[in-house]
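Hey, resending since the last one bounced:
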Amino acid sequence: MRHDEPMSEIALLVNSAARAGRAANDLSGILERLAHHGLKPEILEASTPEAVSQVIAASLAPRILLAGGDGVLHHALPALAGSGRILGLIPAGTGNDAARAWGLLDGNLANQVDRALAEPTAIDLISGGPRPVATSVISGFPAAVNTRANAMRFPKGQARYTVATLAELPKMRPQDYCLTLDGKEHQLKAAVVAVANTAYFGAGMAICPEADSTDGLLDICVVGQVSRLELLRSFTQIRTGSHVDHPKVFMFQAAEVTIKGAGPARGDGETLSDLPLTLRSDPGSLLVAGVGLGSAHDQPNHLPD
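The structure tokens again:
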């Protein structure tokens, strides 16, 4: 869009690669629902993940509608965090863990578009890495699982993470970590270290079931020195969050976390950084429309004047 053209109230970016390309089929339905509200968006296109934040930053629209999953959200965050612009997230990915945590999954496509036009809630992000993170930063065994799952084309959804878990399990070894939580140091050996802003990762696994992305704190889940069988059992419990009762699972909260150890860390399911890494809660840095509204029909249009 040229800057001498009238500014659109909203811009829309659809991740055409989400759900193995099927998310692109949602575009006509999204445009139809926006037209129902009398809205014609500026259409944004990004050919690579790295281009997502660039095209959003170049738009002047005060509200960005993003149709995709956790991956495209992650790459949009550098342009949205602290900008004062509103994100309308239309879940169209495989995992959709951010949308799940924020109550944006319910209903049909029209319901989801309506929520993307609603009043925003200020959401915390995880800062300190090369890019902000919305859901969680993981290291250890789940980082290996996530890498493998992202490279798989089949099966889809949660089953993909199950297959990746079983494939990576024979190589699992607990590692030495030093965690510094708000200045207090913990030396430990762990199979999993997850620093979470929301409850879910890996397509709905409740790694930190009490995490609240509006409380200014990070939730930390450490799965300690467990055998492969114990780890497999704990992963079967993560779906419901009951793993937190395992004697070798430790839960913490902190505003700042430093992780020292070996290996990579992944954020929102994407490659983030090698360790060591210092992470902080960034309170209220992202404005997200329709958080917690469920599947209400004909949500009023609350676009700014």
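Confidence is low (pLDDT under 50) at residues 1-7, 295-305.

Sorry for the duplicate.
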